[in-house]
Specification:
By secondary structure, the chain is of the alpha/beta class. The protein is built from five helices and five strands, in the order βαβαβαβαβα. A five-stranded parallel β-sheet has the order 2-1-3-4-5, with helices on both faces. Helix 1 packs across helix 5 (112-147) and helix 2 (39-48) runs parallel beside helix 3 (67-77).
């Protein structure tokens, strides 16, 4: 079995938080690190703890610090964390601005199970691509050394 992804999420809707927690535990692909009511709380927890999430799921509209500002700050400080947005908004402009703020993808709140499955596979795919890319770079270096 693959290692579990360390997950953190921020949403001001307690029902959505509870559904995400339940589904993530049920799927057994995730280890939940932080479940927060807004972006400021999430950033505080990430900064205060040595264990960092692999993935953060951010609601677009939250009080104190919305998903876009949270994504910008996390991307700047922790570029290795994969950020995903989710929202009840259907506005293409809002989704584009969310992507521009640093999230990989934006999901609709209508299907949280599918979102968690997609995020897991997306993240694992890119882990494997990173390994392949590292192996390619190593192979190129090896060829260069052999040409000397």
């Amino acid at each position: 079995m693959d290692k579990k992804l360390k997950l953190a999420f921020a949403d001001d809707n307690i029902l959505h938080l509870k559904v995400l927690e339940y589904l993530a535990k049920e799927m057994d692909n995730y280890e939940i690190l932080y479940s927060c009511n807004h972006g400021e709380e999430l950033i505080r927890l990430v900064e205060a703890n040595t264990e960092k999430p692999d993935v953060c799921i951010l609601d677009l509209h939250m009080p104190q610090m919305d998903g876009m500002e949270t994504a910008r700050r996390l991307r700047r400080i922790y570029p290795s964390i994969k950020l995903f947005g989710y929202s009840a908004s259907e506005s293409a402009d809002e989704k584009k601005r969310f992507i521009d703020s640093g999230v990989c993808l934006v999901f609709s709140k209508g299907s949280p199970r599918r979102m968690l499955i997609a995020i897991y596979h997306y993240t694992k795919l890119f882990e494997n691509l990173d390994i392949i890319d590292s192996e390619r770079n190593l192979f190129k270096k090896w060829n260069f050394v052999n040409q000397l």
